[in-house]
Amino acid sequence: MITESTPVLETERLGKRYGHTAALTDCTLRVPAGRIVGLVGPNGAGKSTLLGLTCGVLGPTTGSIEVLGNRPGGDAAQLARVGFVAQDAPVYRGLSVADHLRLGARLNPRWDRSLAERRVGSLGLDPAQKAGRLSGGQRAQLALTIAAAKRAELLILDEPVAALDPLARRAFLRDLLAFVAELGVSVVLSSHLLGDLEQVCDHLIVLAGGRVQLAGDVDDLLAVHHRVSGALPAGAERVHEEVVRCAAAPPGARPVDLEELGLAYMTRAAVASIGGAA
Asked: Could you give the CA distance from residue 70 to residue 11 in angstroms, rounded to a whole number?
């Protein structure tokens, strides 16, 4: 069982190559337990690769990774501790909602039948309904229900709301927060939608170009980043345009939000990758 001192995810110079292409390079992270982690970055940044390594469906090319204190995907017991919802909210279109719950009970030793049935009822899903006839939001909610009902200690969600309309996204994120409060589970949530992440995340990882650009608890990161017009204050580092990093807010500085912070680091990485050209 994970303790407060055990990070849910710890990597040291982690790297993954596909042939001659580097998808992830020198990735060093330490994510404490009990966090909802927002994983952001442009397409091709390495987000899905990092999540695949965390789940154990991919193996590293270089470096090391531990999930909940162990090698990811090392055995059945470790697999049972991690729940995963892929980008397309994978469900079996030919199976009914009830079939999915029965399948979850057979495959997961810590399956919480009561939680699953209660969630299906609160969502208004017909147990006899085929998953292929559900809306995109309903399929995403069914996938989240199955992942949560396996009573995992870590939920990994890869772009789960990317294809949902604003109301469905809001409902999904609201229910995710409810699961975190009820189950005490840690979450890694990958998304392009920084505004959505700002509603739920208390830890941020920014990936770009296969490298970690920024990582830490959101409150700590916001406390040392500011928006400053004009000359760079003494002791400050310019991240991009008006966003600077310094320990204390300079006179006249304005706070940044999570979206501005993430975009500043992603833009800086993009500019550096093309040799400083705009």
From this structure: 11
- CA distances (Å), origin 194, targets 113, 156, 167, 204, 259: 33, 17, 16, 10, 5
Is 42 strand, coil or helix?
Answer: coil
How far, in Å, CA of 257 to CA of 276, rounded?
25
Residue-wise pLDDT tens digits, 243-258: 999 998 988 899 999 9
Phi-psi group of 258: left, alpha or beta (phi > 0 → left; psi -120 to 50 → alpha; rest → beta): alpha
Q: Does the predicted TM-score (pTM) go above 0.85?
A: yes
Which letter, b or e, does each residue of 44-54 get, where b requires 16 or more Cβ atoms within 10 Å of its Cβ? ebbbbbbbbbb
Report the C-alpha gap between 115 and 145 in whole angstroms.
Answer: 8
Q: Where are the beta strands (DSSP E) in 153-202?
A: 154-158, 186-190
Helix H or strand E encompassing 208: strand 203-208
Residue pair 249/239 in contact by the 8 Å Cβ criterion = no
**Domains, the chain:** 9-208 (3.40.50.300), 224-273 (no CATH)
> Tokens 């909802």 appear where?
36
- Distance, in Å, from the CA atom of 8 to the CA atom of 227, rounded to the nearest integer, reads 32
